[in-house]
Design brief:
about 150 residues; about 45% helix; disordered C terminus
Length: about 150
């Protein structure tokens, strides 16, 4: 089955069990698929060399390594198609935001004030992916009356 026929696939790099469960629940509620997680940069990088998620949600501070390490590795891997990468962190300083975008992040959210915005984004991405799947699965209609034999 081609990738565009799958639901939104999400991988999470987060060491907080509470946040991981919240994200997994949001992904499932949106009709997406939570395909894995890691609590550290090294395992996340290893997983992301083989998995091809549509969305990667990462924290900056991890058990070992950082979300920056993961973003940098993803830039080097240059997966095709590239996943959407969003940072969700308690360390929402302007400097961390700038570094995140420099390393290829597509979004940056503060856990304290913007988690609901990330959940809304997940829902929107899952809906968009479902819409593309429906269009891809719908056969083209053939209308013989619109054909002309002239």
């Amino acid at each position: 089955m081609r990738d565009f026929l799958k639901p939104l696939q999400v991988y999470v790099v987060e060491d907080s069990t509470v946040i991981r469960r919240l994200l997994a629940s949001a992904v499932a509620s949106a009709g997406g698929e939570f395909i894995g997680y890691s609590v550290d940069a090294e395992n996340a990088i290893a997983d992301l060399t083989t998995l091809r998620p549509d969305l990667v949600v990462l924290d900056i501070a991890l058990q070992t390594g950082t979300g920056f390490d993961v973003l940098e590795a993803l830039q080097k891997l240059d997966p095709k198609p590239a996943p959407i990468k969003v940072v969700l962190t308690n360390h929402a300083s302007p400097e961390y935001r700038q570094v995140s975008f420099h390393l290829g992040a597509n979004g940056f959210f503060d856990k304290a004030t913007q988690t609901s915005e990330l959940l809304t984004l997940i829902s929107a991405l899952a809906t968009e992916k479902r819409s593309r799947t429906i269009v891809a699965r719908t056969p083209a209609r053939h209308d013989p009356e619109s054909e002309s034999l002239h």
